[in-house]
Amino acid sequence: MQLSSTILDNFVNVGVIAIIIVFQQEIRRFLLLLGSRYNLMGRFSLDSFFMSKTPGMMSFYIKPLVRACEDFSKSKTGALIVITRRSELLDYVQTGELINAVISKQLLKSVFFKNSPLHDGALIISQSKIKAAGCILPVSQNMELPKQLGLRHRAALGITEATDAMAIVVSEETGRISFFNAGKGLYNIKSEELEKRLEEGVVNN
């Protein structure tokens, strides 16, 4: 009886370890989401409500964002932009320079200008404002990511694996636009597709 109990205990322990190994990415993402700090006032504010439900209000920040990405694509300006959803990513915001400004195409272009000290990091948009720039993001270890994609793409994939945020990357080498959500990427998309994906992501927030 004691031997059976010992064997059963060891089997359970091995099973738990096996589950952790198999589902480590999902568990990591869940714990990060659980540990993220939520701003309830921001989530239930009138501004947040109308911004997430009214297409006309969404255009106030989605349109300038898409237009800026179009310009980045034409000029082959590298960019990494993260759009928060339920979690405000405060831990990541604190790794960069706080801006807290209204979104505009010119401001986005200033941040990612090649001589700007902030252009190498990520820009985080939260509650319809540019929250911070030059932020450091977790890098994905996904081996299925195409080899030709660089650090920006890995960081965009990493933040969407770890949190519920969306991310946009404009390649400095090719000018191609990529969109990331829920740990998956869409590569070389047009601005119309980008706008559609952003609107869907905001409405479903």
From TrEMBL:
The keyword Nucleotidyltransferase applies. Signal peptide: none annotated. The chain crosses the membrane at residues 6-23. Coiled coil: none annotated. One of its GO terms (biological process) is cAMP biosynthetic process. The keyword Cytoplasm does not apply. SUPFAM superfamilies: YojJ-like. It comes from the Bacteria. Residues 24-191 form the DAC domain. It catalyses: 2 ATP = 3',3'-c-di-AMP + 2 diphosphate. Keywords: ATP-binding, Cell membrane, Membrane, Nucleotide-binding, Nucleotidyltransferase, Transferase, Transmembrane, Transmembrane helix. One of its GO terms (molecular function) is diadenylate cyclase activity. PANTHER family: DIADENYLATE CYCLASE. This is YbbP protein.
